[in-house]
Amino acid sequence: MAYRMMVDLGSHLDIPSGIDSDSKNGVSVTEMETRRRIYWGAYLSDKFQSLYSGRPPGLLLKDANISKELLDSYEEMEQWNPGSASISPTVSYKGRPAYAISCFQGMLQLATIAEEIIQHFYSVRSSQTPMPDLLRFRSHMRESLSQWMESLPTHLLFEPGKDDTPPPNLVSLQVSYWTLVILLEQAFLNRGHFNFSIEPVSRDDGRRRCIDAAFKIWRLLESYNTCFTLRHAHYGLLYAAYSAVLVILQHAHQDQEHYISCIKFFWMILSEYQRKFGRGLRKPFKVLKSLMQQMKEASRHIGLDESSNSNDQQPTGELVYST
To answer: Does some domain include residue 60?
Structure first.
């Protein structure tokens, strides 16, 4: 409802700036900047809430006529330091620039890609789209994601194990990218999602892309958890964890040691989130448990029966776009 109210108030439209806020011909530069930040912040939030809750986006790019350009860049080089509650007690973290503006612009680009993926592959009309068109859209989306990563400024890049862990917003940027890779490919790997089956070679390629993305998410979240802990993590990171572990359980050879370590990590953070904050995730947990119960080795290491019985008592919920 709040997103619809923004449209009713005209927040999605650029109003020419006037001399001051009382100008009859426009708004002040400050108000114009505020309107842009509020609208695009809401647009970004809407897309990732859409993924988490499984509902269609409320704010669409085609309906907006407001610039993405931000005039005030003070936050770009502002030093970021973690609060005592958001950092691991064993880690000494030195403050560093948050690169908030360039990170926000990068997230906005990912949000527009997410909107296209949802509309092309997860909307009501997508089931009626011919296979050649869907495959063409997939190629276009793959190219958009590749171009996004290739054009990312070096100060926004992060390689776990090689680089020092950056502020959480920069880790979230990378996690969001790999989550969209999974979202795109899973549409063609889930049985029954479309009324056709793709060629085995294409399916294997999509499966490989998903597994690679899942392991990238694992390493990113592992670095995040080591440095900051995931106690107060944004729900988008938990959605990424769920998407990633689902890929591993569905498509990987799970009995290998590194796969079990990956699954165990994701199960740990999702279980913790379920107990403290996400009490509406019963259905996603049932999906994961049913898959893990087929893996005796992984179930033994994770202690599935003991660690998850309490989750069956929680209300229902669903993460639609990753299942």
So the answer is: yes
